[in-house]
Design goal:
CATH class of one domain: Mainly Beta
Helix content: under 10%
CATH architecture of one domain: Sandwich
Radius of gyration: 25 Å
Strand order of the largest sheet: 18-17-16-20-28-25-26
Distance between the termini: 17 Å
Bound molecules: copper (II) ion
CATH superfamily of one domain: Cupredoxins -  blue copper proteins
Shape: globular
Number of strands: 42
Structural class: mainly beta
Number of helices: 9
Amino acid sequence: MNDIEGVAGDGQNQVARRTFLKMGAIGAAVFAAGTAGSVVVPDLRRRGLWTPDGVFDAASIAWANAVYTEAFPTSPLILSPFSDELPVPRALAPIAKSEWSNWAQPPGPGLGQQSSLGNQQHQIWTPPGNPVQDPIVYHIKVQVNQHGFTSSQVLPIDRFGKPTQSFDAAGKTYRPGTTRTLPKSTIHAFNGTFPGPMINAEYGRPVIVRFENQLDLNPMNLDRQDFGAPDLSFLTHLHNGHTAPESDGNPHYSMISGPKHHGYKPGMWVDNMYLNWPAGGDDREKQSFFWFHDHRMDHTGSNVYKGMVGLYPIYDPKNGMDMGDERQGLRLPGVRTNNPDGSFDVAYDIPLAFYDCRLDDGVTVHQDIHDAQGEFPDAHNPRKHPEWWGKTFYKHFPNHGFVGDIFTVNGTAYPVLEVKRRKYRFRFLDASLARIYEFKLMSSTQGPKSSVSLGYSGNELQGQYRIPDGQQCMKWTQIASDGGLLPTPITRDSFELWPAKRREFVVDFTKYQDGTPTTKGDVIYLTNVMKMPDGRMWSNSSRFAPDPNYKIPMLKFVIGDNAPDDSVMPTGLLREMPPIPTITQDMLDNRMVFEVERGSAGGEIEWLINGVPFDPSTVATSLKNPHGSTPKAQQKMNSFNLWEIRNGGGGWVHPFHLHMEEHRTIMRNGKRVDVTQDPSHPDDSGREDLGALDPAESVIVYRGFRDFVGPYVAHCHNLAHEDHAMMFGWEITP
Ligand SMILES: [Cu+2]
């Protein structure tokens, strides 16, 4: 890789082989980054974690660990939960050809037409077998704006739940017990909204999204606070589209090709081509729900938390199978309206994006090693920021990750949705940095009580409200996971939702699980029963040490009027799975092996894969497989292989995401799960792009590498881990 600006062949970064051998595991990490002339190097050096000969300075590590004592504020208590309506997204309108064809640089298939940099080209413009037609063009501007999570009054509280003082931007201090209106939080977001726009896509109809960086414009002169990529660059990943590298928004690509930078800077644009074409042209590889989010190296977490989230349901019109029309095909809930602008909306088919946040209390010191290293100099950290009271708080901690104490759905805290008495389809997305949820449908006679009023304090306040008398009243019918429709539906009492995962369910609001009909005015709570006090993992869930008192209502459904319903509760085949070949011992022995672990180096590089932090300039190397070889993470185009992902740590969970194609889980913890299911992971039966790894678990997945060539990544989707280099590069070769 000799095309990284300014770092190629930099002899200063070379580590003497002798030194490397003495250094052991930590040294290996340094060595790998150093010899590759990685662009990571200057960053580490800037942070005081790198010395010229590539050896860590012990004192700097100790210092780094000391400042990583994570202190988070307690958000003010929302006094009137379940009064704001759930925002139900509407489809974004495309740009008419008469308009985009007059752009100074319209989208096109030619060399230099893929971005404003003029050095990129779409690998595929028209998918094989598709009619040659213009893609549908959307224009999404990455903008500064502001967002409110609630319209309710709030009561500022401390970590013990006691009323406490609060502040405002003008420097005023308010006495404990004073209720307040929350200021809006500054967001960096797609078209300036959180969540961002929803694109309703269809297989067979390619889409171009022109993402244009306008983050330098700040017409309202909003205070950007002290998180988000400091250089205002972005990189959008459609998670998990079957997408060419130049449109995939991954840092292994962006650092060595295209922008040759962390992302696209203000003033730049990039046309991401979403072919809406299944891997290998195989209908069995079709998916149903993507989302797009920022993927800028080192700041993915802070950019996503600052609002860069968009929704992308994808429908399958072939034979009317899953086209948003409940009278056709699988007859899943959905009533479709075709809009004059070419977009379409589907009623009774609702995406739900989950996101947890913390709001500044004005007394928690903002500290983060990056503050001392030149990021956000205007914040003058470490210090308190009473002027930011009530706005989103985030610091770029590598340690336990980040969990919020206010839970939101589609950008609103504790919303309410009136539903008709009929079936609905819900598309769940965990857009949180680290939080894992476990959802049940519950009824409650006495309704939500604030955790403060129930006597809780500290981490037990997370989620703010509980339903002490909550009882499960309905079951879920799961129809899809990350990889699209499951082979057959799964009936569940509860389900887990890990970061970046999607799962889809049909809920019948006409009756309870015991068969009793619902009546108008009945209330059902979407309830989180997984307690996760920090980014490490859950402390209590249905699978491990259930806490019957932890029942956090997140969304209130109110049963409304009857409505026509032509949908059918699915029972049989949804979608045939693509075939898996006979797995031979030889294939297993030759697999690639990647182990995610918490390294001993601490500080900025404690999260490692195969002993090394992410180096965007090169591909990873497998650990030694049973065959005795250590292959490079390179695959020939149109090949298939087995990859093992191991969680090397006992006390952590990692949602591990593989870009590009959906995989099938073949083995979990040494047992075949394609033959006999693991009850802890029932949807291992479908296809996924994110392996949920419990502590010390391992999975062996079967993957395809079709249709495109070039660099991709795989990484932990706990975004604090990802931003601390728990990622590796891999590539598809011609
Ligand atoms: Cu992780």
